[in-house]
């Protein structure tokens, strides 16, 4: 198990002032504990008053910034931590879980999530031309980077639009475009750049991820998936693991088990039925793999989850 944790920095006065304003805006527009979808498309305001562990779920590409508190995100055996000094970017759809480390009614965890559309990155690159984004070996589809005043300023201007709803249709797309530009010009902007470039291997891995997300219940033949995205089998294995930290088969397994857990918890399906629904033919294999991921067989895990609700 590896721990990937940002360096602790002294917050400079300008950044601290921005952080305080961000916290005030989130508290005003998200007065109750929840993740609130705002009037700005793809912008979510998050407030939690207790340290909670989230269920493993498929995270779509997004920028995540905290105004207060800290969060640890798990991708496979890797742990990433971010806080008001650092933002997190998920550049491809990934099965992750997380835990809020600092949250109470007196000091709630306050955050923002802005979903990222790779097509908008592509449009930005087409209009702006070369941005000087370095061509570096592709890394994980998730990274933590230091927050900077220019990025935070753009995010604040986007959230301020919630106080002037009539300005949202015209100004929000422009500001979101600026935020993408700031991310692309950041130290790890190449990770976003690669997912938008049609001929890059990372873009083809994204296509493989999209295929798995839509067909996870079907039998997986790696050779067929490699042909689907125009990569050799060995290259697909290597690049897929570089981006997601897991093999295509492990990725598919996570998707299957997450969906089975949802079906049992939300729809009341029995374990054997849920396992069959997501592609398992053997109830015993489903139970073994479920226990390995969630730490208990389905019946005990669901009882634990329901008692916590």
From TrEMBL:
Residues 206-304 form the HTH araC/xylS-type domain. The keyword ATP-binding does not apply. GO terms for molecular function: DNA-binding transcription factor activity; sequence-specific DNA binding. SUPFAM superfamilies: Homeodomain-like (SSF46689). Keywords: Transcription, Transcription regulation. The keyword RNA-binding does not apply. It comes from the Bacteria. Pfam families: AraC_N, HTH_18. This is Putative HTH-type transcriptional regulator. It comes from Pseudomonas wadenswilerensis. The lineage of its organism: Bacteria, Pseudomonadati, Pseudomonadota, Gammaproteobacteria, Pseudomonadales. The gene is yqhC.
